[in-house]
Every structure is written in structure tokens, then in C-alpha cells.
Amino acid sequence: MIAEPDVAALLAEEFGTLSDLIRVHARQRPTKLAIADDERQVSYAELDRLMDRVAVALQQGGTRVGQAVASVAYPGVAQALVYLGALRAGAVAAPIQPSATPEQIAGMIADSGAAVVFLDAANANALIGQTFPAEVVMLEDLDGWIAPDGATPKPVAVRPGDGFNIIYSSGTTGVPKGIVQSHAMRWQHLSRNTAAGFDSAVTLLATPLYSNTTLVSFLPTLAWGGSVVLMTKFEARRYLELAVEHRATHTMLVPVQYQRIMALPDFDEFNLSAFRFKTCTSAPFKPELKRDVVTRWPGLLVEYYGMTEGGASCALNATEHQDKLHTVGRPMPGHEIRLIDDDGREVAAGEIGEIVGRSGAMMNGYHGRAQATADATWISPQGARFIRHGDVGRFDVDGFLVLTDRKKDMIISGGFNIYPSDIEAVLAEHAAVADCTVVGVASEAWGETPVGFYVPREGSTAGTGEVLAQVNARLGKTQRLSALYQADELPRSAIGKVLKRELRDRLAAGEFA
Predict the structure, then answer these.
(1) Whose C-alpha in 242, 260, 362, 505 is 20 to 30 A from the C-alpha of 39?
(2) Average pLDDT estimate for 414-425
(3) How many helices (DSSP H) and strands (DSSP E) are in the chain?
(4) H-assigned helices in 61-96
């Protein structure tokens, strides 16, 4: 009898599928925990059978190979089963953000072309009154909807360029764009994690499955045969309790989650010695917060910079390069980044430019939006395809990338380019400021002008006018804030990004007057 190859050998192949890897784990480690949430745990053998049953039900219900399967839910085992079962049926997983407006959610479901959408009870209640061109299945009823135990799906042939998932961008108006990632792109993600130790990982995740932030840890853990623990809703103390209970070794968190965890007065009392690998992405990660995590939380800390669309990624080993915490690291192997000016020409070494990137992990394009895909593309003089990251930055003398700002967030005031991150860095250093952001608003005199918002630090007695005066005294003349407003908290997406458009809208509505 010929021995079945181990997973490492399979992942070294040029191409394969996650679904097949899980099948191998089901045979080689059937009783090992695959996925858990607060209410349910499934082993690899159970996961494999449940994926089959979901796939059969989808195929019998008319879902075609290459068609999207949508879900609107908070993270948990049930949504994971739908996601993975869709892949086994040859369909495309399309988890959709519950934080969008009901109208946007309905628009995303329609845009995906899904024949079936899975809802949890909380989101079903929020979507009352919306109509979908798809069958609705409640996740609470999933066990009754799927095919009987022992059912076997029709085999499907998956090609590298076929769609793996659609991730909808976090737009704040209109229907967000659907980013189509291929099986080849995902295989790149899975196979490059050879040194991350996912085969013995217990990965604790507290971000949603509709976000690439989550998937870059969720999927490799399952590919290599580790265990995933999903939090339905993030809460800092509960996160630490779960980390201790499960002896978590790996995690991916966004900066605001690290901030809330590290701020707990009894953080140091939790036994986190099992941690080996902590990662962060999706939003600016303050150097002082990185340093605090490196100092007080066991295990390696790596910050990733990249985008859901692909392009190129950078990695910063914050534990090793503590003199580079103001950067996002260097391009990963096989990833190329160039910096270009407004005319599409590369800038000189050390100069600031728009970031464009290319690698083996790039999106197919935006679903049904050829022009948007073209607009996101830069073609080099050598004819190579790059994806525009939408960020502005520069490389230091050691090749580490320093982000300046989001290109779309750049403020042009009186003809000067103003980067909000420069102002935010000064504002954040004020003793009275716990959290802050800066946005550009319309100005008759200057075209645009910078306006700041901040959350006061607990116990601070400084007034807003005092903070504004002291911050402006440290800024250049063109950078100075025209106004500063207090807020109880800054509006953020589920992956921690400040929703600047929402602040502009609230300001225009007179909320901060």
C-alpha cells in the first residue's frame, strides 16, 4: 500500500485545494479539534463529513460550480461550515459584512449572484423588509437543512484561476466592490506559511470571516491541521480568558484590539506563555503599542502590510526589529513594491510615492466591474501588472517601508499636500488624548482644511481649546487644525479602521457643533 503524502508535501506542490487538505486531515488526525466557538466544537473527521453534507445540499439546491454562496452572520462554527462546504461544492464563498446598511447588504447579495444566502438570527432581524434574489437559510437551522449523514457531493474539478471567495470592500456609500480571490491566490497564502507552525497551532480569532484579516490566519490553520477558536464578538477580557483556557499559540488581531487588551489593568496576570505567533494588520499600528506587546506578551509579533486585492505584502518582525517599529517592514519574498508619482512614473530613491505592488497573490479583479479593476491597475514600463494599494509611502535606507497616508485621505489645502497621519502622530502624543483621527473637510478659503477628532484620556482635565492650541503649536503652518472636536469614541469598522466619512457626515449634520 502506498503511503499517503503528508500535508507539508502536498502544500509544497504547485497547486492544490484547501478542501482536499481537510480531507487528508480527516483521515490522518480524525479526532483533532478543527474549529470551535462558544457553543460548538467539531473535529477534523466531523468537519469533513459536514462539509460534504453542506456541499450536497448546495448542489441539490441548484448552486452551480463557480456561483457564489452568501452568508451574513457573526463568526462561528456554522458560518465556517457554510464557507468550507461551498468550496467543496465548487462554489465561491461570499461572506458579507453585517455592519453594512441593510440596503448595502441586499445589494451585495444581489451583486454576488448567490442562489442562497445564510443568515443568523441577529442579522435576519436586522434585515427585515429587505428582499433578496436568493433562497434564505437560517444558520440556526443548518443541521436540518444539510444533506443526511454519509451523503457524498459530486466531484468538481477546481482550476487555479477559479474563484475561491468574494470579499466586499468596506465602502460607506453605495454597494461595496466585490474582490474576487482565486484558488491560486489562496494556495499562495497557504503554502507560504511553512515556518509559522500552524500544524500545531491553536489559533484564537476575534475578527469576522468576511475580512481577509481573519482569513489569512483561519485558512492556513486548517490547511496545516491546527485548531481554530472563533469569537462571535470581541471583548478584551473574554479574549484573554479564552486564550488561557485553550492554551492559544497563534492569533491575528487588529490594532484597536491590541490596544484594549493591553490596557486591561490585570493583563499581566493572565498566563499567555503558550503564545508563539501573534500578527496584526488592517490599520495603523502605533510604534509604542507594538513595543508594549513585544515587551509584555510572549511570542513573536509580526505586522503585515498589504491589501485584500493582493498586490504586494510587507512583513515586520517587530520582536527582532525594534528599531523599525515606525515602519511596516520589508516586502515579503516574491513580492515587489514600486513607488510612483501622480503621472505614473517611479519616484527617486527615498522619495514619497503612491504604492503599487505585484506578487503571485493578486485578485482576479472586482466582481462585475471591469473599469474599477482597470482603475486599480498600474502597468510598469516593462509591461508587468501591479495593483495600486491606495497608500502613500517611502522606503528608508534599509528597505523598510514607511507609510505616509492613504492617498484618498490626503488633504490638499491651499495647494499644499497634507498627510493626516502626520497631524495624528502629534495629536496622539498629547497627554489628554486617548484616541484620535484627522479628516479633510471643505473650505471656501483653502479648498480643504484639516479637522481633528479625539477621545479624551480618562482623568484628563484639559479642555479642547487647550489641546488644540498646544497641538497646533507643534505643527507646520499649513498643517494646523482648523477645528478639534471631542467624541466619546471614534466610529470604527469591525476590523478597526476609523470610518472617516461617517465623521465628516456627522460634522456636516451639526452633531459636533
Answers:
(1) 260
(2) 81
(3) 16, 26
(4) 77-88
